[in-house]
Amino acid sequence: QVQLVESGGGLVQPGGSLRLSCAASGSIASIYGMGWYRQAPRKQRDLVATITNGGSTNYADSVKGRFTISRDNAKNTVYLQMNSLKPEDTAVYSCNGDISSYVGSYFLTRNYWGQGTQVTVSS
Fold it and tell me: Does 1 have pLDDT greater than 90?
């Protein structure tokens, strides 16, 4: 069983910074692409940033130049550094990943979601 657990959310003033973490745990064999998504109240869930297992990154236009996604493969953790935060960044942020895990003598590769962490940008 694989779990993704996010941390680091909270309340921050406009212009401030937060760093989100997403740690994967369980019988992990390999972690492939990882990403952060966000969902504001009454809106659809949107892609924020993704990172491949080789370190290539992709960002939504709305966060380019302000957010940075990174990963520590030794710790099975992906991060999202968020700078110059705006009220419109307020949302529940969730991490997502394609992970291969051990199941008996087999490998199972599937997509996993974390439970989400609230980020509120307000004065």
Answer: no
